[in-house]
Design goal:
Layout lengths: L3 E2 L8 E2 L1 H16 L8 H30 L3 E5 L3 E4 L2 H8 L2 H11 L3 H7 L3 E3 L3 H16 L3 E6 L7 E5 L2 E5 L12 E12 L2 E4 L5 E4 L2 E13 L6 E11 L5 H5 L3 H4 L1 H8 L11 H29 L6 H4 E6 L6 H12 L4 H11 E4 L10 E3 H7 L1 H19 L7 H4 L2 E2 L3 E3 H7 L3 E4 L2 H9 L3 H6 L4 E3 L6 H7 L2 H11 L2 H4 L14 H26 L8 E6 L8 H17 L8 E6 L7 H18 L8 E6 L4 H7 L5 E4 L11 H7 L3 E4 L5 H8 L5 E2 L4 H10 L3 H6 L2 H11 L12 H9 L5 H20 L1 H14 L5 H13 L6
Parallel strand pairs: 3-6, 3-14, 6-13, 14-15, 15-19, 19-20, 21-22, 21-24, 22-23, 24-25, 25-26
Antiparallel strand pairs: 1-2, 4-5, 7-8, 9-12, 10-11, 12-13, 16-18, 17-18
Helix pairs in contact: 1-2, 1-4, 2-3, 2-5, 3-20, 6-35, 10-12, 12-13, 12-15, 14-15, 21-23, 23-34, 24-25, 24-31, 24-33
The chain binds ligand CBF.
Catalytic activity: [(1->4)-alpha-D-glucosyl](n) + phosphate = [(1->4)-alpha-D-glucosyl](n-1) + alpha-D-glucose 1-phosphate
EC number: 2.4.1.1
Pfam families: Phosphorylase
Length: 813
């Protein structure tokens, strides 16, 4: 047990560096089983993490007891993705033990920073949706909202991206390979999850589901400590295991492969995040994954509830369940199934309880991301749920018919033409609240995808603009800026990010500005070293660092940025003697493995980078860094170093964005369209401190409705035409002139994402950025105003909003 003095309520107990040093040594010997002289960097990192974990565990027990004793309503956050990244530094900072840990490391002769880098980056998510879930875990713990996050413990998270000759290559990610310090396996906490088979009724109200496949969901718990370690919630991830470990009979007959068949089948469910679902097998696996974690979570929620309560009808008083996107939308049918089949409530009773417990967050309006399931597949995998969804559909339509409202019945059906289940509709109908993730997105939800539902249930849709945790996204990743803020305004901003505005008054203070600029410069030097280490490219840290980091997707319009890069390259070549503002364009992002055009755009970025970076005429005026394997850890290095944040999606298509918030908080100025949360960022930082360009969401809708002709736009704009021509004339692909024909053809013929329509406005705005960046003092002043004006985008504020408007929960302290 480590020597520590009890702190006052809400304060971390004090831990001495010497005691901590001894604890690390003890972990190395007794948990890792290594002598210091033989220990590898991984061993030390494991010992360090285990010693820090001990500091979390007692607080965790206390929090769990307090949640049970307080009998407060509990939040259950169901998400296919939790993009948690590395946890060691997060825990150390949140517990307030950084100086002791650093001193202990120094005494042990190990480098703390190097230890941090030994931890694998838990990539259990794809992008914004999964990172949002991780920020929410931090905020719920920080605010003392009793909560569990529920998801899948994938053996392999999001693939590792490598570039081979500039093409994306996907390799399996292996975060579990060298052990995991943060999780506890709960072998006893296991639930059976069934698939397929037949349903029968006994004629006296009982229903039996005879499944033809059953697996076991086993819990793995990770404690998530909030700021100052005041409260610790649990992230519970489910691993899929066979019910019988081995078919010994077959094994003893020498049939080794088929003896292990059931194990392989069961374990496949939690093997990979987002398996390719273009095949029938892939689709079935995806449906099974969604049901697997939803069912296990709901069984667990009910077990927890019944530990302290006995009336299942009062479930909504104690339980708020959030469906993060449509992936867990099967929860509507599963909760009804449990209530009706296991607890013998009638369907109407079960439906009422279900819709008081569940809520749904919509994260996109793009039809391809609103899941639909073929009814034949669904009936095969989940026959009982199919019956329940048919009942919900019928019941809900009947309810509407009686109300004589101006909606089309076809539009509000959950099962479309008898052949597809619309999971967004199921989630909507089965929820107490449905929320969008930015003001614009929520408005568009009401006007488009959920228009008819909004007429039926006008109070159901609410807005909860996304947020980010200031702990990871400033305090931890930007130590220079953190120190400056602590010196200037104390640490109140870490608890309440809106207080960061207290530093706005220093924007015109020369000494503060100088220190702010120095912190930025140090971050840029760190990133420059990282770029060189990763791709061998040397960049000048005093150039403008222009950053676009996000999933590769056509609507995010990396292509617009690349075309502007080409146009700038051509302009510099034409007049190298002119006064250019040196710029480094930094790209990071993965394309979904089956998304061919996005993968080609990655290749284009790499081809352009190769030519630009090796052109002696260009020199340091322009460099292009395309960084492979963008993930949370890399983001933590890029974001603090950015000068310019590219948020250039086609207006109306980015639900919110959260990278935009992280970059602004770290002092980058945004160049962006009026899309997603950019709109709210612009309102807060003011028009002088952001670069807004291009079509609005209304313009986009109007243009698409009238029919857009990219031909005319391209023909009338020589800069744009020059850039597109260079793409297809082999300037960047001398080995294969036709490589980007398809990309260019799309621009000429349809240009659904309106890259060409926004090009000129974007190009001109970038030239204004060039001019503005030369006035370093003024730029820093605006950078400070970005940092200090975006405190509202803390995920603490978002969680307060959910707690009040969506869940009806209160903090336990
Ligand atoms: O709400 C979180 C994020 O979710 C997405 O990443 C998503 O997966 N649908 C959206 O694309 C983002 O706009 C949003 O910020």
């Amino acid at each position: 047990m480590i020597e520590e003095a009890a702190g006052s309520a809400g304060q971390p107990r004090t831990l001495t560096a010497a005691a901590f040093r001894d604890a690390v040594r003890a972990k190395l010997a007794y948990a890792v089983g290594k002598d210091p002289s033989r220990a590898t960097a991984k061993d030390w990192s494991m010992a360090l993490s285990l010693a820090v974990r001990d500091q979390v565990v007692e607080r965790w027990f206390e929090s769990t007891k307090a949640s049970h004793a307080g009998q407060k309503k509990h939040v259950y956050y169901l998400s296919m993705e939790f993009l948690i990244g590395r946890l060691l530094n997060d825990a150390v900072c949140n517990l307030g033990i950084e100086s002791q840990v650093r001193s202990a490391c120094a005494e042990l002769g190990i480098d703390y920073q190097a230890q941090l880098e030994q931890e694998s980056d838990a990539a259990l998510g794809n992008g914004g949706l999964g990172r949002l879930a991780a920020c929410f875990l931090d905020s719920m713990s920080t605010l003392g909202i009793p909560a569990h996050g529920y998801g899948i413990r994938y053996d392999h998270g999001l693939f590792r991206q490598r570039f081979h000759d500039g093409w994306q290559v996907e390799e399996p990610e292996d975060w579990l390979v060298s052990g995991r310090a943060w999780e506890f396996e709960r072998a006893e906490m296991a639930y059976l999850v069934k698939f397929g088979g037949q349903i029968s009724f006994d004629g006296h109200g009982a229903t039996y589901w005879r499944a033809d496949e059953t697996v076991k969901a086993v819990a793995y718990d990770t404690p998530i400590a909030g700021w100052r370690g005041r409260h610790v919630n649990t992230l519970r991830l489910w691993a899929s295991r066979p019910v019988e470990v081995l078919d010994l009979g077959r094994f003893n007959h020498g049939d080794y492969m088929s003896a292990a068949e059931k194990t392989i089948r069961a374990e496949t469910i939690s093997r990979v995040l987002y398996p390719d679902d273009t095949t029938a097998e892939g689709k079935e696996l995806r449906l099974k994954q969604e049901y697997f974690f939803t069912s296990a979570s709901l069984q667990d929620i009910i077990r927890r509830y019944l530990e302290d309560n006995d009336d299942i009808r009062k479930l909504p008083d104690q339980v708020a369940i959030q469906m993060n996107d449509t992936h867990p939308a099967i929860a509507v049918a599963e909760l009804m199934r449990i209530l009706a089949d296991d607890y013998r409530l009638t369907f109407p009773e079960a439906f009422e309880i279900t819709r008081q417990c569940l809520s749904y967050t919509n994260h996109t309006l793009m039809p391809e991301a609103l899941e639909r399931w073929n009814t034949n597949l669904f009936r095969k995998v989940l026959p009982r749920h199919m019956q329940i969804i048919e009942w919900i559909d019928y019941h809900h339509l009947a309810e509407v018919q009686g109300r004589n409202l101006p909606v089309s019945l076809d539009a509000i059906r959950i099962i479309e033409w008898g052949s597809e289940i619309k999971m967004g509709s199921l989630a909507f109908v089965g929820s107490r609240r449905v929320n969008g993730v930015s003001a614009l997105h929520t408005e568009l939800m009401k006007q488009t995808v959920f228009k008819d539902y909004h007429v039926l249930y006008p109070d159901r849709i609410v807005n909860e603009t996304n947020g980010i945790t200031p702990r990871r996204w400033l305090y931890e990743c930007n130590p220079g800026l953190r120190a400056l803020l602590l010196e200037a305004i104390g640490d109140g901003w870490v608890d309440n990010l809106e207080r960061i505005e207290e530093a706005a008054k220093f924007a015109t203070d020369a000494s503060f500005r100088e220190k702010f600029a120095a912190a930025k410069k140090a971050n840029k030097v760190r990133l420059a070293a990282e770029i060189e280490r990763r791709i061998g490219l040397r960049v000048d840290p005093s150039a403008l660092f222009d950053v676009q980091i996000k999933r590769m997707h056509e609507y995010k319009r990396q292509l617009l940025n690349i075309l502007e890069t080409i146009a700038l390259y051509q302009a510099i070549r034409r007049g190298p003697g002119a006064e250019w503002t040196p710029r480094v364009k930094i790209f990071g992002g993965k394309a979904a493995p089956g998304y061919q055009i996005a993968k080609r755009i990655i290749k284009l970025a790499n081809d352009v980078a190769r030519v630009v970076n090796n052109d002696p005429i260009i020199g340091d005026r322009l460099k292009v860094a395309v960084l492979p394997n963008y993930n949370v850890s890399l983001a933590e290095v890029i974001i603090p170093a950015a000068d310019l944040s590219e948020q250039i999606s086609t207006a109306g298509m980015e639900a919110s964005g959260t990278g935009n918030m992280k970059l602004a908080l770290n002092g980058a100025l945004t160049i962006g369209t009026l899309d997603g949360a950019n709109v709210e960022i612009a309102e807060r930082v003011g028009p002088d401190n952001i670069y807004i360009f291009g079509l609005t969401a209304d313009d986009v809708a109007g243009l698409r409705q009238r029919g857009y002709n990219p031909n005319a736009t391209i023909d009338s704009d020589p800069t744009l035409k020059g850039a597109i021509d260079a793409m297809v004339n082999g300037t960047f692909s001398p080995d294969d002139h036709g490589r980007f024909n398809e990309v260019a053809d799309r621009l000429w013929h349809t240009d659904w994402f309106l890259v060409t329509a926004d090009f000129q406005s974007y190009f001109q705005t970038q030239r204004t950025v060039d001019l503005d960046y030369r006035d370093k003092n003024r730029w820093t002043e605006r950078s400070i105003l970005n940092t200090t004006k975006v405190g509202w985008f803390s995920s603490d504020r978002t969680i307060r909003g959910y707690s009040k408007d969506v869940w009806g929960v209160e903090p336990i302290f």
